Amino acid sequence: MNRESRSRILIVDDAPENLQVLVEALRGIYSVIVAKSGFKALELALLVPPPDLILLDIMMPEMDGFEVCRRLQEDPRTRSIPVLFITALHDEESENRGLTLGAVDFITKPFNPQLVKARVRTQLELKRLRERVRRFLDEDRGGSEAGIAPESHQGG
After folding, report:
1. For the sheet containing 8-12, what is the strand order?
2. Quick one: which of 13, 80, 128, 150 has the most CB atoms within 10 Å?
3. How far apart are CA 52 and CA 15, in angstroms?
């Protein structure tokens, strides 16, 4: 639980009542950051350190969640942040579009706080596992380059 308490969650929704429900569900477990627009979400995604996960509303004025997700995926600095769409849309086309753009899951409104917590926890664990694998592979490559006798450098 201690590792989760350090995880940063960015919640993006233009409706104050949705923000309130989500913040109340996740506060105390995670560090919660809030944005009320897509533009602000893109700005906050570049924080150092960046959020570990983004809960992103689809239907927002000016820039919808699909566009925010597309921009996050295009930027190498934000590409690895998992995006969970939070939406009232229940149609297959919206889900397909979101997943194609790079979202990892959907949470439908009205929110069930226990379901929100479970999906956030699952996605954070998957992200941690991906990072561990990436570090392991990087260390493995680094070890070879650091002179741990890869075959190509032996017998020379």
Report:
1. 31-35, 8-12, 53-57, 83-87, 105-108
2. 13
3. 22
How do 53-57 and 83-87 pair as beta strands?
parallel
Give the Cα separation of 138 and 55 in Å (integer): 29
Structural domains in the chain, sorted by start: 2-145 (3.40.50.2300)
d(CA 109, CA 19): 12
Of all helices (H) and strands (E), which one includes residue 56? strand 53-57
Q: Give the model confidence (pLDDT) of 7-47 as tens digits.
A: 999 999 999 999 999 999 999 999 999 999 999 999 999 99
Asked if 67 contacts 38 with a C-beta cutoff of 8 angstroms, the reply is yes
3-state per-residue secondary structure call for 74-132 = HCCCCCCCCEEEEECCCCHHHHHHHHHHCCCEEEECCCCHHHHHHHHHHHHHHHHHHHH
Question: Which residue type sits at 20?
Answer: Q
Residues 99 and 83: their CA atoms lie apart, in Å, by: 10
**What is the predicted pLDDT for the residue at 143?**
54
